[in-house]
């Protein structure tokens, strides 16, 4: 048998520099690649004189002493004419020792993960981001990641059925009804995406009609439109003892009649101090045009209070907790109205728009066109839309102040006393 060199030590192996090798005797040598990875090799000879070389392991996972033992066994196998089993062959055979059933189960698991709702929904969000504006894409991502993925993320889109998602959707509806409707819409979009990409069969759409309970007397967003009842709502919001940011956002929903999704994304850069208004860019508006929002005196006072909560996010209504976004979520406003202020089924954040449209018309005699512009409802051709972007701004400013004053009057009536400044009423 070959003699084993005695002069090589583990310290020499450890200090071996990249792009060099170290002969350790008996055909064993250590090779250090340029990357610094060190590999053990053995040169051996068969009884008939033919020679070979084999990788037996890596240093330091295999020590010098272990490498010498393996080298000795390799020489014995070669001399006896036995098969030389190196490191890579051992690794392949270890993998192949799994039964055919185990390998099939492993493949099926991998395919199920690749076709799971969690994985496919992310691909869908990436695809839709190409055609959606940034705000729409973010809202969809929030709903999918916060509500749908935790509930059905592990489900296989190849076999998903309507019954599999009805329960999770109903659970979401019980917490955030408005968001649940969007989640259903997004889910149907993801299913269609799967059909187009061959993940599902062409006739495998989901039937989700009737998945949410309906109030036969309710066709629109719940909204309070009776003066006395709205006075009680406004009084409750003014006295809300929860998050100051949530309270302020609710009040701005009423003052401005902005859609909740647009309101919570308002930034300080969109506030124009000289004209005392928000200038919401068209990229964030449903109709695609810039929207000018004149602010009443009460809203300007509230903005001064909000400045003390201003952070690096740049949002007027920053997130009050770790919500996965920099601004407050509109669902936080819905939850406050529904669960903390006790207006479940009576009024939602989107309902402020209907309240403004009805009450400002009936009680303040607001001009219909002015109120429609305040709601960002613009009709007609593009030229008219561009003009209407700034139309009636003086009248809208006047209506906005009348509306804010009227809200405080109704709160005072509901309280049974005189109108008090906002700061004193809190």
Describe the structure.
This protein has helices spanning 10-14, 64-80, 87-96, 100-114, 117-128, 134-152, 162-175, 177-196, 227-238, 244-256, 260-264, 297-306, 330-340, 351-362, 368-374, 382-388, 393-415, 422-425; strands at residues 20-25, 28-32, 38-45, 51-59, 271-272, 277-280, 291-294. With 426 residues, it is α+β, with helices and mostly antiparallel strands. It folds into 3 domains: 10-96, Double Stranded RNA Binding Domain; 114-196, Tyrosine recombinase, N-terminal domain (DNA polymerase, domain 1, Orthogonal Bundle); 227-425, Intergrase catalytic core (hpI Integrase, Chain A, Orthogonal Bundle). The strands form 2 sheets. It has a 4-stranded antiparallel beta sheet. Strands 5-6-7 form a 3-stranded antiparallel beta sheet. The radius of gyration is 35 Å and the shape is elongated. The chain starts with 9 loop residues before the first helix and ends with a helix. 30% of the residues are buried.
Can you give keywords for this protein?
Double Stranded RNA Binding Domain; four-stranded antiparallel β-sheet; alpha+beta; DNA polymerase, domain 1; 18 helices; hpI Integrase, Chain A; 426 residues; three-stranded antiparallel β-sheet; disordered C terminus
